[in-house]
Amino acid sequence: MIRFEQVTKRYPDGTTAVDGLSFEVAEGELVTLVGPSGCGKTTTMMMVNRLIEPTSGRIFVNGQDIATVDPVRLRRRIGYVIQQVGLFPHRTILDNTATVPTLIGWKKAKARTRAAELLDLVGLDPKTYGSRYPEQLSGGQRQRVGVARALAADPPVLLMDEPFGAVDPVVREQLQDEFLRMQEAVRKTVLLVTHDIEEAVRLGDRIAVYGQGRIEQFDTPGAVLGTP
Ligand code: ADP
Ligand code: ADP
User: Fold this and answer.
1) Which of 35, 77, 97, 218 could bridge to 210 as Cys pair (CB 3.0-4.6 Å)?
2) Which residues cross the membrane (predicted)?
């Protein structure tokens, strides 16, 4: 579903963030990218939705070389969740969640119905929370809205950059549990960046362990931890 072939990213200042990276993620697989700050995880992820362009190498999504796909169209098929989800402050939670479906031309009623389903899926009752505004929600709840919004147009691929990084440990564990339950229901192809090895192990079907600009190990949690 996602394939990197010898991908290198060198920034204009000469920093090589990603160095000859090749890997493959299967459809419906959740791969966590783990490693210290500055080793190239975010760069890897942002090349998948073409917010960053590789210096060399090729990236395929669903068999298509993404260099040949219009970036705006590409991003409609790729959900994106970052640490500080930017919700629109003057739109209700339901309207925030319905943003992408509305943007791509779904009928308003259909977009809202789908948004309500997704809010329900991430553990926010749409009857209670749908009409509220972002400032009326806790950080953890806003993060859930971010996940619901990323999934609303039903993209096959989901990119998540430290999605649970900004909340306290108790809420984080709750969000992780809910996310796993949700992933069982929707089975997206997911790349999830974290610097927390525990989170990587807990969530990943497989784990990509980064060194400087490279993946040093790409295996199941059990194999990465060295247990059978
Ligand atoms: P992360 O939390 O993944 O480590 P950073 O806080 O390092 O992310 O980076 C946040 C943003 O700043 C990203 O858009 C990244 O491209 C940019 N950035 C990171 N390092 C540099 C740098 N040395 N020069 C310019 N921009 C950078
Ligand atoms: P991570 O997500 O693992 O923290 P990044 O992909 O954000 O790592 O960064 C990898 C390397 O590339 C770091 O050395 C960072 O400083 C550098 N970098 C990231 N963005 C930029 C940028 N826009 N310009 C220059 N260097 C950058």
Assistant:
1) 35
2) none
Q: What is the pLDDT of residues 49-104, one digit of tens each?
A: 999 999 999 999 999 999 999 999 999 899 998 887 789 999 999 999 998 888 88
13 pocket-lining for ligand 2 (C-beta < 6 Å): yes
ipTM over 0.90? The verdict is: no
Q: Do residues 134 and 93 make contact, with C-beta atoms less than 8 angstroms apart?
A: yes
DSSP letters along 186-217, please? H--EEEEEES-HHHHHHH-SEEEEEETTEEEE
Residue 68 Cβ inside 6 Å of ligand 2? The answer reads no
d(C-alpha 66, C-alpha 113), whole Å: 31
Residue nearest to atom 4 of ligand 1 (CA): 37
| 88 CB near ligand 2 (under 6 Å) | no
Q: Is the CB of 37 under 6 A from ligand 1?
A: yes
